[in-house]
Amino acid sequence: MAYSQLNPAPHQMAKPGYGKRSTPDQLARTADDFAHLPRREAAIAAYLDRVPDGTDISVKTLAKVLPYGQCALRTALNCLQRAGHLRRGSEHVIGSGSAHWVTRTWFTRTARDDAWWAAFSRGDVPTEPSPRPTRSRAYVLLAALGRSASVMSLSAADCAALEPLADEWFSRGATEQDVLRALTSGLPAPVHSPAALARIRLTAKLPPDRTPQAPPRPALRVLECAKCGVPGRPEALRGGACAECRGEPALVRDTGGLSPAEVRTRAAEVRAAARATLAEPVT
């Protein structure tokens, strides 16, 4: 089923802070993004890819807008999780002004392996290799400068030499129009050396650096098993499921004689205590 057949309107948004969350550094959208999935799962994935962040993508809500029942949707979402497009868990955003953990459903158009999701849960997101443009934004602007002011036409060597100076403008938030205005307004007559004049203006008129001094601290994230909902180490949640739910024997650990059910209960208690601690006001 094509995505156009799964295009209800409007999208139902979740409560503030909940709903779909897109992961960073995804590759550009193509027609073959979900070709490796079964037809139903591919259609649902295409729908999830296009709805905005914050959309309610719970099974119950999706069943109201998509032509599938809750059981089929739950099966499809688990398939997307095993394929690396989806993870569920909880997150506490540092600096958000709230001490509460919120439930998250992270979606990525670009399929990720278990190692990537483990790094993501630690706030260490590896970037995807992608082809670099043959010419930078700064170089392209300089090469086309003569179209705005013919007396400022630059050679290829001039563009390459001035590229770092123009690129610094963009790193400080300047637009193409800002750079063009600085290089072409109030030109003297005649212009003896366009490259020298461009260098002087790019240096003398450089805008102030508004880049934040310190990057924001990463969010605290906990991934959960897709089937039983128990939190676990990302490395242990292969395909988004714990060993027991995958039907594999769990590693034998010294739990002080606790049964598996007691271990799960203890884990839930620890998690609740951690949330309660974060919720306490700071004095």
Question: Topology of this protein?
Answer:
Blueprint: E1 20-22, H1 39-50, H2 59-65, H3 70-82, E2 86-92, E3 102-107, H4 114-121, H5 137-143, H6 145-148, H7 156-171, H8 176-184, H9 194-204, E4 220-223, H10 260-279
Parallel strand pairs: 1-3
Antiparallel strand pairs: 2-3, 2-4
What does this molecule look like?
With 283 residues, this protein is α+β, with helices and mostly antiparallel strands. It folds into two domains: 3-124 and 218-279, no CATH class; 150-204, no CATH class. It has helices spanning 39-50, 59-65, 70-82, 114-121, 137-143, 145-148, 156-171, 176-184, 194-204, 260-279; strands at residues 20-22, 86-92, 102-107, 220-223. The protein has a four-stranded mixed sheet with strand order 1-3-2-4. Residues 1-5 have low confidence and may be disordered.
Query: What average pLDDT do the residues reach?
Result: 82
Oligomer: single chain
Low-confidence stretches: 1-5
Q: What's the total number of strands?
A: 4
Number of domains: 2
Total helical elements: 10
Q: What structural class should be given to the helix and strand makeup?
A: alpha+beta
Summarize the structure.
The protein has 283 residues and is an alpha+beta fold. 38% of the residues lie in helices and 7% in strands. Helix 1 crosses helix 3, helix 2 packs across helix 3 and helix 5 crosses helix 7 (156-171).
